[in-house]
## 1
Amino acid sequence: MTTDHRHIGRPVPPRHHDRLVRGHGRFAADLRADGMLYAALVRSPLPHAEVTGFDATAARRDPRCALVLGPGELAARTAPIPTVWRLPGQPEDAVPVAVRTARYAGQPLGIVVADTPTAAADLAETVRLDLRPLPPVPTLADALAEGARPVVPGTGDNTAGRIRFGSPPEEVAAALSRAAVVVERAFTLPRLHHTPLETRGVLAAHDPGTGLLTVHASSQAPHAMRQDLCAVLGLRADRVRVVSSDVGGSFGSKVLLYPDEAMVCAAAVALGSAVRWTESRAENFTAAYQGRGQQATARLAVGADGRFLAFDADILADLGAYATQAGSGPAQVTGLTLQGPYRADAAAATVTGVHTTRVPTGAFRGYGMQEAAFLRERLVDETARELGLPATELRLRNLLRPDELPYTTHTGLTYDSGDYGAALRRAAALADRPRPPDAPWVRRGTAVVTAVEITAFAPTALLEAYGIAWSGWEGVRLRINHDGTVTVYAGVIAVGQGIETTLAQIAAEGLGIPLDWVRVELGDTDTAPHSDLSAQASRALTLAGGALVTAARRLADRMRQLAAAFLDTAPEKVRTRIAATAAPSSPDAVFHTPDGARIAWREVAHRGYRGWGRARPTDPIRLEESVDFDPPQLTFAHGAHAAEVAVDLGTGRTTVTGYWAVHDSGVLVNPLIAHGQIAGGIAQGLGQALTEEATVDADGLPTTRSLREYTLPASPDIPEDLVIEHTSTPSTVIPGGFKGLGEGGTILPPAAVACAVAAAVPEIAHTLTSLPLTPPRIRAALRAAGLTAEGDIR
Amino acid sequence: MTAVAFAHTAPDTLDAALRALAAPGRTATPLAGGQSLVPLLTSRQVRPDVVVDLTGVPGLTGITVGPDRVRIGAMTTLRTLERHPELAAALPVLGRAAAAVAHPHIRRRATLGGSLCHAAPAAELPAVAVALGAEVVLRSLRGTRSVPADRFATGAHTTVRAPDEMATEIVFPRTTGLTHTFHELCTRGATGYPVAGVCLGLRTDGGRVRAARVVVTGCGDVPLRLPGTEARLTGRPVAGPHPGLLAALVAEAAAHGGPEDGGYRAEVAGVLLLRALADRGEGAAR
């Protein structure tokens, strides 16, 4: 009996769930080391202030204190963190660890290390800061006001560089002049907190004997962290090892080395010992980088026939106090992806970075594409209303058809494959249902929106072209061990998304073996192939998986050749017979010939390690294949989302009553994991549509400091009618045909919900350009439109 | 973060608990269900020298339904209020308001006395206590006193309770002649924090309001009783129409100096009130 070891496409339960549910997870706060000490940060209480004094005398005298590093000591021990993706004209190219001027409330100024976490926190409080307050610059309007104080000293204003993408201005102007209708709106996309379940955390251990610094961190990108640590601490690459332990959610907030994490590592080196820091929830709300934070004026020009002539946007990105390593990246992607899945005569965007005295912004799931989708889909929606056309009809007229692909946008992105219209029509059909009768004060509406998604963010040439000083390729090392078991090492890491399961599926299918023979080892810079971007940008499965397809094919061929040598036959005559439940050590898991000769899989592996059976003495011995995969271009996933909402005219509360998503991520390795990723992304996107906003007060101090002020969606807020379907257009550029889906679910919900609210209450449609759509905001718009709160109550 | 180091004492008699609260020279905080206090401790917003854990003190839990009043021990959990058949028959609004608090895990620990003493401006049970005319019994080594609920909270998270006092019992009269309901809007679905709410007490006759009690949450530092709104309702048909009632409620609440939200919470309270009236008008008509 032969068993077909097909694993790709099977809804295998994610492997890590069992371990985590049983409490065997190892998150940063679970880790221990001999003689471990604990760190607490001294942070600026003010958003903008000169630090004229840092007096830690009391702390240093305390017997519980191991070390205090203030701005002076940190300046001697650290170099700034280099940036990798800059805007033309950006005034700074590094993020300092040691500072004499605080530029945001919560900025780390120093670190205290003590023998217990409580002692560290107690002693950090005793540090006397002398701060000379400087005027805060909390908003984009403040930053760009005439005479605003520059956040970066010595610069003339608060702009942090500018870039233009897409059609030349004269082409945009020409398209605008041909237009029958130009719809222009001003948009505000607020800053968001990532609020991962697990806050940040670091255990840094320095061995003074070997000089080795071992850092366990809740990080999405351990190699990038190592690279930055080497630069900051002046250490050789082979003296720093970074290990990503279990990561309890990240969403883009754990892709960079932060100054406070660098301080913990500097303290470990200074002490020659192990130091652990666990970020508190309050710190996560003030000191962890935030996402989004854009204002834009965007316009869509259409012809009388409803044909899109031009998309155009001026985007202001609130970078905060510093342009971080990737700084303006998300806003640049907003500009790059504004055109979306539509055909247009012209498309362009100008992106301007702006400094404020707020915590820096950076990557957030959807990376600029959620912002672009919101601008674009709201503009299309408003345009349809202006033209008196059904919005779905207007979209279908302008969506790129499969026969137009590959298609290169005006901003230079080449879409490889997809059927955008099919997804939109399907989502519209799913959402088309009778609406239940409602109270007189409730209005319902439905809308369908669509987007393409950059996935497999990689081609190294593309990164080079954009001036991004990271590599984009991904590597895997696939090993068959001497006992026949199989280990995958990859540079991408697990952040809860299930990558250790999907990579195992790809390896097992490629080798033709049971799934449980394969283990996947990730996250340790000592053993994992180099990876700068690792688990971000919807790239892990596509790129590591693409590499693994090739590695598995090569290793399967080598095993077959070794077996053929033993069986004294030609490799193409060798077959395998491995039962679905066989163990790798099983004598029944065999290579065999048609005439009955056989050798066990494990025996082939074992002989392989002895070096026996090679065709030529120069053939490789170790049963390992290392493959680096640098795809020729991006691959684009796409999807359409439909939302049905009920708007309470009295309270302004919007409830999502139904949600339908149709995604195309090419070949799905694991539909169960795909469903979880998309459902989670939708839930996160619904929070961003309706409740989430990181705010500051008039003095520039953060006002969302806990989950009390920052409202995340909970399970009852996610509609029971949440339907996710897939179409499948294989990628033409990734082996295996995979496309990414880590971010797709998050990209469309704000646009879908806002357009559905517009459909429910067209009287306020034109105002729905700012997120989140909180009840007070909707209520104010209703009031302005003359819809009184008591109107429908009799 | 971790709390500032504190002593923990778990007395097993009321007298020992009162002595712990009264210990001179150190600040003591009573710990009931801990659903508000523990986060305040770990975020270092509260830094007592000693935490007096009341969970082992006998005689502080239980619901006694009498002919004229209902006495509820301060350490009775919200989950108990929610699921108590006799209480549901005597004062159904208490259980329903309790059920509106957070989610079951929290209600299993949170207590009635804790909720009143924490005195969050938008909290459900302090408003219901005001609407029902409850009295909070405070004990200390100095003696016992009883404070009407509408004079118990003095501001956001502040009450008349002296540091050496603890709430032992809340007494609800059954003789108001009003029937109460509670309605609220939360920051999200059913599990969020309350934004605003209203406890409405009505005595009706022939579909008309004979007496009304209106207490709103979230519109000021403490639950606000709105006598002006009550007076406007009196004599009106329950089912309405109630022209001008919403605006009047917003104005009356604003006179107490509400939150800086452009009157949004008061408007929500008013909307909830109008809907409650429509509901009850319909019920009365059936």
Note: The longest strand of chain B covers residues 194-205.
## 2
Amino acid sequence: MAVDLNMNVLIVDDYQTMLRILRNLLRQLNFKNIDEASDGSEALKKLRAKNFGLVISDWNMEPMTGIQLLREVRGDEKLKHIPFVMITAESKSENVIAAKEAGVSNYIVKPFNAETLKGKLTSVLGDF
Amino acid sequence: MASNAVDPELAERLHQIGRDPDGQVKISEIGEVVDAILGSLQGDLTAVDVKLYEELEGLSRFIEEAKTDIASLRPDEVKDEFLPKATDELDAIVEATAEATNAIMDAVGDVEDVMAKLKGKNADKLMDATTKIYEACGFQDITGQRITKVVGALQHIEEKVDALLTAFGDEIAKYKAANPQPDSEPVEETPSDEELLHGPQLKQEAMSQDDIDALLASFD
């Protein structure tokens, strides 16, 4: 199945630089509708206001972290189907396990490259 | 013969120290208690008493020396000067790397605009190059997170130093009074080569190019 490049993608990170990097890399993958949030609570508001086909989120943010956002998304009937990819510098196995238990679709460790991003998104969304 | 009865005043003091809600006891208080114990050992002393007296006297001396040694380390300077300075420098690193990274990405954006007008191998090559630049720019995020962790460690140290200052407050004040800092050198004196090595200045302390030009012009 081919990826719908017109889907709304929400990227969540408290570092503006990383949001910009992600936006540019996703644009290079031909995603056309990319929205941003700087923490979990802002992301949750946006997710409840518009239909999104993918969430890519950092872990370490305030006041709502990425794992909290993931739990909120998976606990919400209307949102729980949205693929959720965590991109984070948290690379301990306990983090990966916690994310998996919370229902993460895939997990990318920073620093990452475009090939890894594309590969993980392919496994979550389908071929580009 | 030495009495086994404990001095009521001393007993009350020990009781109060034990009930300190903060669990923190000033070093000076410990010294005073040891002195009080020594003072209470009067009359005929047994060999055991003498030994105990010597041990306590040694302990009292040790505490006095430790107080002076720690006061001479000037933990107040560490808290008021060095730790805030280190934190400011680290914040400046994060700010500078973020600015540089954004400038790089602005430039890549311009390259992408040109790239959009190209086709074939040249466009592909530029796409690969710009992707690599974006990937490399991720260093700023990782660096920022690492520095944030260091700032957290510094804050922890600051809390510990604060506790030390509470315990040694009087001793540090005494040490400062006994060892005043030498007056800073007169401004007109030429600084040594070593004194000229400041490293990069924080933004709020740095002179702008306009300031420097004006200063240079003032020599004309």
Note: Chain B has a mean pLDDT of 82.
